[in-house]
Automatic annotation (TrEMBL):
NCBIfam families membership: Por_Secre_tail (TIGR04183)
UniProt domain Secretion system C-terminal sorting: residue ranges: 314-384
Keyword annotations of the record: Signal
Leader peptide range in chain numbering: 1-19
Protein name, per record: Por secretion system C-terminal sorting domain containing protein
Pfam family, one: Por_Secre_tail
Lineage, uppermost ranks: Bacteria, Pseudomonadati, Bacteroidota, Flavobacteriia, Flavobacteriales
Domain of life: Bacteria
InterPro entries per record: Secre_tail (IPR026444)
Organism of this sequence: Chryseobacterium populi
Length: 388
């Protein structure tokens, strides 16, 4: 049975997801029941399918984290990396990894989209059984803080999958309960709240899109799911099984029934069909984008950048080579709550600057680095992830 899953700044990037390889789909075969087909890139602006990354029949190189060795998995079980029954997918952009779970298994898999190598994360935290639909993990997304999150059908497990010292850890954050205002639109019942997919926002909260088309906002700290509304503009029998934010800041939704992709505005919940006539059986979607993302460049310059975006040594580099940039610039660092946690002047001479910036006293987490000119005009906003 398939899964019963703003505005401060929007992220506008010119090039397509297909070219950048930052929007992905978990697809199935053309069958009535769930049968895994492949992971593939998707152009989520134009509705075009990209290259396949790993198919159900591909040879798999699986390395067990707990056993610290390669493993040969039983392909006749639910517990293997190419299981027929899969409904979760997240994209960890910092490492180019696809993170997923078979629906009837507690195993977590991390697929490197470049090398095609797979890490197996065995754990006792996820409590999943094939016969209990409430326990099935059907929603997953990367959070703004750099961790990956998953929610089971009934909301009784809210998993956080984090990485430290090259080792993945799994924590159960608790039970998500209905907000008192939800009424008959319950997050925890099959008809109104099960399945679908979820996306993250820049406050590290989540929006869950249930199979029925209902949308819930999950407040991470409060462990409450509040009914937001129902998606409009899609066919009445449309099964919402995948959701992810595209490069325009819109939410793309997909169906396991082989229906077209739709693009939805998170404020109005109104969806419109994307071009391209893409009609894949999509069980889940994943991207590197977030709702309400402050890391948008309002007036980006081609020759102004900071790197790396995954900071594991406490330093970032600012590189400017643009004669239109004059005077002293200001670099500011904001945490995910919007608090300014660091400031530094950038003296630019002749439109050129190469400077290493020490991110002193910044704890691990997600931040936005903003560079402004003397008039206060934003030249660059970019998200970084500190993992010292």
């Amino acid at each position: 049975m398939k899964k019963h899953l703003f505005p401060l700044f929007l992220l506008f990037l010119g090039s397509s997801a297909y070219a950048q390889q930052d929007f992905f789909a978990l697809t199935g075969k053309d069958t009535p029941s769930i049968i895994f087909n492949d992971f593939r890139a998707i152009d989520a602006v134009n509705g075009i399918s990209g290259e396949s990354i790993l198919t159900a029949d591909s040879p798999a190189k699986v390395f067990s984290q707990s056993r610290n060795s390669s493993v040969n998995e039983d392909r006749n079980s639910y517990n293997h990396s190419q299981s027929a029954t899969m409904a979760t997918l997240a994209y960890d952009a910092s490492d180019n990894n696809l993170v997923y779970m078979p629906m009837f298994s507690s195993n977590i898999y991390v697929l490197n989209s470049k090398t095609k190598e797979i890490a197996l994360i065995e754990n006792t935290v996820a409590r999943v059984t094939s016969c209990d639909i409430n326990s099935h993990m059907t929603r997953m997304a990367a959070g703004y803080d750099g961790n990956v999150y998953a929610i089971n059908n009934a909301g009784t497990q809210f998993l956080q999958i984090s990485k430290k010292n090259n080792q993945y850890q799994v924590n159960d954050l608790g039970i998500i309960k209905d907000d008192a205002s939800n009424g008959k639109n319950s997050f925890t019942t099959i008809e109104t709240g099960f399945g679908g997919d979820m996306i993250a926002d820049a406050d590290n909260n989540f929006y869950v899109f249930s199979t029925s088309g209902n949308v819930f906002k999950v407040l991470t700290k409060e462990l409450k799911a509040k009914f937001v509304g129902k998606i409009s503009g899609i066919p009445e029998n449309y099964s919402v099984n995948g959701a992810a934010v595209n490069s325009k800041g819109k939410v793309v939704i997909a169906s396991a029934k082989g229906a077209p992709l739709y693009e939805m505005d998170l404020e109005t919940l109104h969806a419109k069909q994307l071009p391209g006539n893409l009609s894949l059986h999509i069980y889940d979607l994943a991207s590197k984008y977030f709702a309400n993302d402050r890391a948008a460049s309002a007036n980006p310059l081609v020759n102004l950048d900071i790197y790396p975006t995954k900071v594991d040594e406490g330093f970032i580099n600012v590189n400017i080579n643009d004669k239109s940039v004059k005077g002293n610039l200001k670099l500011s660092v904001f945490d995910i709550s919007g608090k300014n946690v660091m400031k530094q002047d950038l003296p630019v001479k002749g439109g050129s600057l190469q400077q290493e910036i020490y991110l002193k006293n910044l704890v691990n987490g997600a931040y936005v680095v903003s560079i402004t000119d003397e008039s206060g005009r934003i030249l660059l906003n970019k998200k970084i992830l500190v993992t010292k």
